[in-house]
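name: query_chain
kind: protein
chains: 1
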Amino acid sequence: MKNKLIYVVDDEPNIRELVKSYLNKEGYEVQVFADGESAYQSFVQKPADMLVLDIMMPGMDGYSLCREIRKTSDVPIIMVSAKDDEIDRILGLELGSDDYISKPFSPRELVVRVKTIFRRIKDDSLQEDAQRSEIRCHDISVLPDERRVLKEQTEIELTTKEFEFLAYLIKNKNRVFTREHLITNIWGYDYVGDTRAIDDLVKRIRKKLAEVDSRLEITTVWGYGYKISE
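structure:
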């Protein structure tokens, strides 16, 4: 897995190298810059995964650099300042920084804040992936990973086969399936039994959907099978 790239932008050489050393020990790739202009030009060519910006720098200061980067990127930004005034922290956050730390600061504390932000981003990404895996139709949500079915915020208690049947039809909504096809895909190829088991299953699911006043309907296609329409 590729190491995260962090830009450290500070006009004090000792701070640049100290922060770089601590971040390198944690496995991060670090590039250091003495001014905002060079950091911005490098970011345009090779965007970093995070920036640690000193506010008070000659030329393009940390505020200006943050403002420019936020025009095109939501990369995490930690702002560093010799001031501990509330107005400076508020301004940094309003410009789009993710965190603020005052000088003098502990390099270990900065490392912890860097890790925390990356962990939060990872957690948010996992949550978004889970949300994307959600299957919806009308007012019903199917959560495959959790094997749960919700009508808005109300959970519908389903047996394993009821869940698999409903999830299959919703995932393939607007398609009609024969009873034989559904038997094969829900029970498996080795199922031995009457296809009327599907009809009984549908009756039970319809009853549970009606109990929560769901708008979703399992439609019977006479002489053929079943479908769910969007």
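note: The mean pLDDT is 85.
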